[in-house]
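Re: weekly structure request thread

Next one in the queue (136 aa):
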Amino acid sequence: MTPQIRERRPRVSLFCFRAVAVVTALFAIGQPIFIGSYFAGTFEALGLHSAGAVALQGLGLLLPIAAGAVVAMRGRWWFLIWSVALFFLIHVQAILGYTRVLQLHVPVGVLTVGIAVAVAIASVRRGAGSPREVRR
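Done, posted below.
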């Protein structure tokens, strides 16, 4: 009888990464909606936009941690690369917003939303859970 070797795959770590990535994408999508409501005359929406920025900063910190766990379990390494990039973008975006540098805040916001949605979609795709190849 030959012992079966269990393949090491990210399961729990990938589930956590997926959850954080999807919630981050939802909060990122909500940001332009809130500021649009503010511009339409609902002035309380500016508070929601600010609170969303704080929540995104927290999620932006959790995302690379969850991605690091996926990589540690032989998951996709580029999850970590894009999560760290998104972490920096979210914080640059918040700094630009709080300092009222809107000519950069808006385009960086568009980039942030796009990357957040792309990371969330990539994390829930079928191949996201397959282990990466091991070089010998």
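The two ends are 26 Å apart (CA to CA). The first helix runs from residue 12 to 39.
Next request, please.
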